[in-house]
Amino acid sequence: MTRLMYTTLLFITVSITVFTVSAELHQNKITVDATDRENWAYINFTEGKTVDIADPATSMAWDLGFKRTEVIVNGGVSGPGKTGALALEDISFEDVLEAPEGDYVSDTEQIATFARGDGWYTYTGPPNHWVLPNPRVYIVRIPADPTAESEDIYYYAKVRFIGYYENNETKEGSGYIRIEYVLQDNGTRVFIESEPASVSASGKLTTTWASMKLK
After folding, report:
1. Is the pLDDT confidence value at 214 over 70?
2. 10 Å Cβ neighbour count for 8?
3. Mean pLDDT across the chain, nearest whole number?
4. What gap in Å lies between CA 176 and CA 174, rounded to an integer?
5. 52 in a domain, yes or no?
6. Is the pLDDT of residue 213 over 90?
7. Mean pLDDT of 43-52
8. Mind spelling out the 3-state secondary structure of the chain?
9. Which structural domain range is residue 183 located in?
10. Is the peptide bond before 127 cis (omega within 30 degrees of 0)?
């Protein structure tokens, strides 16, 4: 009579590495030639520059529009982009680390978003007639997909106005609006640059089948 014994050892090792990469914060300063009293000048935050728009009523390629001291958002009566803005009081630009969750408003027939309250500037009146930016931070909320019926993901930009003149020191050449902004385009409300992170999950599974006997 022969007796056979089979002994099998099976080792299975599974190693998984997951990489996550932080989205880029777009930080920029733009000077907009808003000297034309009839036509608007438009900017795109992501591109970081002024853009030519054939029909602002149907285009979603612009975020803000400028004409002299007037500023509009691509939302409400001004455009189809569903963009809204919110003014923050008593906080510096650098200290705004996260965008608030709500009450963002778009332009209406009665008033533009950036004209609400005290507006973005102060007019000094005679004798100088200067236009001076107010120390106020605006948060602009931009739908990632303006065509969607319900919005789940937004891009957020914190914006401040830092000038209105071609030469802001001498106040010469009015109508050149200068802004500084930080755009977060990863779907969060955070304005902090995070380090690229990698997460390594190594799961090791070792199974031993021993003494498998066949008689």
Report:
1. no
2. 9
3. 82
4. 6
5. no
6. no
7. 95
8. CCCEEECCCCEEEEEEEEEECCCCEEEEEEEEECCCCCCCEEEECCCCEEECCCCCCCCCCCCEEEECCEEEECCECCCCCCCEEEEECCCCCCCCCECCCCCCECECCCCCHHHCCCCCEEECCCCCCCEEECCCEEEEEEECCCCCCCCCCEEEEEEEEEEEEEECCCCEEEEEEEEEEEEECCCCCECCCCCCEEEEEEEEEECCCCCEEEC
9. 4-33+84-214
10. yes
Q: Is residue 56 part of a domain?
A: no
CA angle 59, 60, 65 (to 5 degrees): 85
| Side-chain half-sphere exposure of 177, counting CA atoms within 13 A | 27
Backbone angles phi, psi at 115, to 5 degrees: -100, -5
Of 180, 181, 109, the closest CA to residue 142 belongs to 181
Residue 179 lies in a domain: yes
What is the model's pTM? 0.78
The first and second tokens of residue 131, run together, are: 């236009």
| Cα-Cα-Cα-Cα dihedral sign, residues 85, 47, 136, 24 | positive
For residue 103, pLDDT over 60 is answered with yes
Determine, yes or no, domain membership for 41: no
The count of domains in the chain is 1
The pLDDT tens digits for 120-166 are: 999 999 999 999 999 999 999 999 887 777 667 899 999 999 999 99
Residue 21 has pLDDT above 50, yes or no: no
